[in-house]
Design brief:
With 408 residues, this protein is mainly beta. It has one helix and 23 strands. The chain is 3% helix and 64% strand. The longest helix has 14 residues. The protein is globular, with a radius of gyration of 23 Å.
C-alpha cells in the first residue's frame, strides 16, 4: 500500500473510532458560557463578533522599490461561532469569518476573504477524538518572497486520536490533508505561482510528559508527502521531522514553548537540492515585576520558493518584545525582529550567478485599551525593511494600523 494511502486510511480509521473516543482533560475544550459572550439559540450556543482592524495607512501598498504608492485601508471583519453540546460524549464547533478589505485610492486591492471551520469532538474516559474541516479563500502574499497579493484557496481535513492522564500526560496520533492553490495565472520572477499548487498529507505521532509542576516535555515525529499538482515540475517532496521540546505553563513566570529537532527534506527529483539539518521554534515570555513582560522568539525552517530553480529557501528569525500594563486595561508594547532568507541554488543573471540572500527587519510599537464590557481598541505602527543582494528586491514599508473588536 502506498504511504500516502496508508496515511489517509489512518485518518479514516480514526474517524470511524470517534464513537469510542473522547476528549481527555488536557484536550477538552471549555464549555461555552454567557460570560464569554455566548447566546442560547435552541440547542446551539452562538457568539457573533465584529472587528474593525488594519484601519490606518500603508506607505507601500505594492511593496515596490521605486514609485511607491501609499493608501489608507480598513478591514471590517464579522464572525459567527456556533457550539452544539452533545451531552457529555461530544461537541460540535462551527465558525464563519469574513474579512472585507478596502483601500481608499487603490481599489484594485479591494477584496473579501472567507474562512469556514468545523470541528467535532467525541469523549470517552481518557480518550479524545477530534476531527475537523477548514476552507479558506483569501487574497494574500504567499510568502515573504512574493510581493503581490494573489487569490489563495485552501482546504484542510484533520483527524486526531489521543489518550491523556490528567492534563499533563498525553499520547496522540493524527493525520492531516491540506490542499492549496492560487487562482488565475499569477506570475512572479517569470514563474507561474501555480507552481506552488500542492497537496500535503501529514502523519504525526506526539507524546507529552510532565517534567515539573509547570513544565512538560514534548516529542513529535512526523512524515509529510507533498505532491505538486502541475505535472513535470520535479517539485514533489517527502519530508520527515523529529522534534523535542518543552512547554511552559501560562501561569509560570517563564511561559511559552521551545521546540528543536531535525528535518529531512527529500525531493523526488534527484536533480533538485534537498535539505537535511536543524529546524526549530521558540516563543518565550517572562514576567518582570507585576506589569512588565519580556518576550523572545526564534524560528528556523523551510518555505517553498519560485525564484529560479530554487525549490525552497531557509528562513531564520529572531525577535524581542516588551509589553507593560500602565493600568489594568491600558497596555503598551514594542518589539522587533530580524529574518534571513537564504537560497541554496544560484540563479544566472546578466551580471553573473547570484546566490540570493535577503535580510528582513521589522519593528513595531503600539497600545491597546479594553474597557469593561466594551470593544477592545488598539493602534500599532510597524516598519518593515528588506535588504537583498538582489538589488531590485530592496524595499520598505510603514503601516499604521488600528483595531476595534467587539463580541456581542
Amino acid at each position: 500500500m502506498p504511504p500516502r494511502a496508508a496515511a489517509l486510511l489512518a485518518a479514516a480509521a480514526m474517524a470511524a473510532a470517534a464513537s469510542l473516543a473522547t476528549a481527555a482533560d488536557g484536550e477538552r475544550p471549555s464549555p461555552p458560557a454567557g460570560a464569554e459572550g455566548y447566546l442560547d439559540a435552541g440547542p446551539f450556543h452562538l457568539r457573533p463578533g465584529l472587528a474593525l482592524k488594519d484601519l490606518g495607512y500603508d506607505s507601500n501598498v505594492f511593496l515596490t522599490r521605486d514609485d511607491r504608492v501609499g493608501d489608507y485601508t480598513a478591514t471590517l471583519a464579522p464572525s459567527l461561532e456556533a457550539v452544539l453540546l452533545l451531552g457529555h460524549r461530544g461537541r460540535l464547533d462551527l465558525k464563519q469569518e469574513l474579512d472585507l478589505v478596502g483601500f481608499l485610492e487603490t481599489s484594485s486591492q479591494n477584496h473579501a476573504d472567507s474562512r469556514s471551520t468545523a470541528r467535532w469532538w467525541a469523549f470517552l474516559g481518557d480518550f479524545t477524538y477530534r476531527g475537523g474541516l477548514r476552507h479558506e479563500t483569501a487574497r494574500l502574499r504567499p510568502s515573504e518572497e512574493i510581493d503581490q497579493r494573489v487569490r489563495y484557496q485552501g482546504g484542510t481535513l484533520e483527524s486526531r486520536l489521543s489518550w491523556s492522564r490528567g492534563e499533563r500526560t498525553l499520547l496522540a496520533a493524527s493525520a492531516e490533508h491540506r490542499r492549496m492553490g492560487y487562482a488565475g495565472d499569477p506570475r512572479f520572477f517569470g514563474n507561474n505561482l501555480s507552481d506552488l499548487d500542492r497537496d500535503e498529507t501529514t502523519a504525526l505521532l506526539e507524546a507529552r510528559l510532565p517534567l515539573r509542576p509547570k513544565t512538560q516535555a514534548l516529542v513529535e515525529a512526523s512524515r509529510t508527502w507533498i505532491d505538486h499538482r502541475r505535472p513535470g515540475l520535479g517539485r514533489d517532496v517527502v519530508s520527515q521531522r523529529l522534534v523535542a521540546g518543552v512547554l511552559l505553563d501560562a501561569s509560570a513566570l517563564l511561559q511559552g514553548e521551545v521546540r528543536y529537532g531535525v528535518l529531512s527534506f527529500r525531493p523526488e527529483d534527484p536533480a533538485r537540492a534537498g535539505y537535511s539539518g536543524p529546524v526549530g521554534q521558540a516563543a518565550l515570555r517572562y514576567r518582570v515585576l507585576r506589569r512588565l513582560r519580556l518576550g523572545a522568539e526564534y524560528a528556523r525552517d523551510l518555505e517553498f520558493s519560485v525564484f529560479g530553480d530554487n525549490l525552497y529557501y531557509r528562513r531564520q528569525t529572531v525577535g524581542l518584545s516588551a509589553a507593560t500594563a500602565l493600568t489594568r486595561r491600558f497596555h503598551l508594547e514594542a518589539g522587533g525582529s530580524r529574518s534571513t532568507l537564504s537560497y541554496p541554488v544560484p540563479v544566472p543573471l546578466p551580471a553573473g550567478d547570484l546566490l540570493r540572500e535577503d535580510t528582513i527587519h521589522q519593528a513595531w510599537v503600539g497600545w491597546s485599551y479594553a474597557p469593561p464590557g466594551g470593544p477592545r481598541y488598539g493602534v500599532r505602527v510597524v516598519r518593515w525593511d528588506r535588504d537583498s543582494n538582489l538589488d531590485a528586491e530592496d524595499d520598505a514599508q510603514v503601516r499604521v494600523v488600528g483595531e476595534a473588536s467587539y463580541v456581542f
